[in-house]
Amino acid sequence: MINYEKFANSEIQNLISIQNKFKEIFKIDSYENWFFDGETEILRFYNSSEDEIFFKYITIGTYSLKSKNWMWSWFNDSSIEKSKEQTLKIRHFGIENKYSKLTQGTFPSDEYDGWDFLAIGLKTPGGIGVYKANSENLEKYMLLINVLDSKNSNEIKKFKQKKIDCNNHGVSKPAFVCQHLDLKKTKGFVEAFETFEGMDLEDDDDFQAWCNECEEVRKKYDGWNEESEKFAKIKLVCEKCYFELKKFNTTN
Ligand SMILES: [Zn+2]
Ligand SMILES: [Zn+2]
């Protein structure tokens, strides 16, 4: 039997080659924005130019940046995602091979475990690519199962009316900010376009803001690209969080 580290390493190599092909085929890097919804289990990538693509996904687990703990989806009572049962396949595989990281519901972890788990998940339950979505203090590791036809799907219609369920504010519209913006220290607030609370947005627009430092990096790279996006590490927040952040970071 191969030990876990060796096994995970070889699966990561497999993930890299699958992911490179996936990105190329679906032109993933050409999309600036993303949004997901747990009830429909759909992840959307999109642009202001109205290009968009939809994937069905399975969240295999989450990593809390606050507690530094990994939690498998099958263990997560607060997750409403139906497909979380699918992640039990990874657990069974772990039991058979005595890989304890695959069998404990939650444990202290780091930013690398999740990628190993995605790589293993590509084998079972399977997928065509992977994605990590960031929200407040939480990283969500997703297997992308298949692409949805954007014209014929009722699911997509349902998805498009979706809102975010914020821990602090309840159900509200989604918004996006860089990883640095918080309510502790003023960091500036640069917006994609001028906003006010409660304003109506076009279908393909989102509230989007980043800090002064991100703006410097963005300018240096002549806009958003892989490098500047890596620095900003845009995360999902609710509309109310967004305007709290705006107020704090522009007036204090
Ligand atoms: Zn920033
Ligand atoms: Zn909120």
Please, could you describe this protein's structure?
With 252 residues, this protein is α+β, with helices and mostly antiparallel strands. It folds into two domains: 4-157, no CATH class; 163-251, no CATH class. It is 33% helix and 27% strand. It has seven helices and 13 strands. Helix 1 crosses helix 3 (113-126) and helix 5 runs antiparallel to helix 6 (226-232). It is globular and about 60 Å long. The chain starts with a helix and ends with a helix. The structure holds zinc ion (2 copies). One zinc ion is lined by residues 178, 180, 210-211, 213-214, 232. The site of one zinc ion has 7 residues, from helix 5.
Could you list some keywords that capture this structure?
single chain; 252 residues; alpha+beta; seven-stranded antiparallel β-sheet; four-stranded mixed β-sheet; 7 helices; globular; binds zinc ion
Range of strand content? 25-35%
Give start-end ranges of low-pLDDT stretches.
Answer: none
Mean pLDDT: 92
Structural class by SSE content: alpha+beta
Radius of gyration: 19 Å
- Summed up, the helix count is 7
| Ligands bound, unique | zinc ion
Shape: globular
* Sheet of most strands: 7 strands, antiparallel
Tell me roughly what share of residues is in helical segments: 25-40%
Q: Give the terminus-to-terminus CA distance.
A: 59 Å
The helix/strand order is HEEEEHEHEEHEEEEEHHEH
Total strands: 13
Tell me the number of structural domains. 2
Pfam family, one: DUF6882
InterPro entries: DUF6882
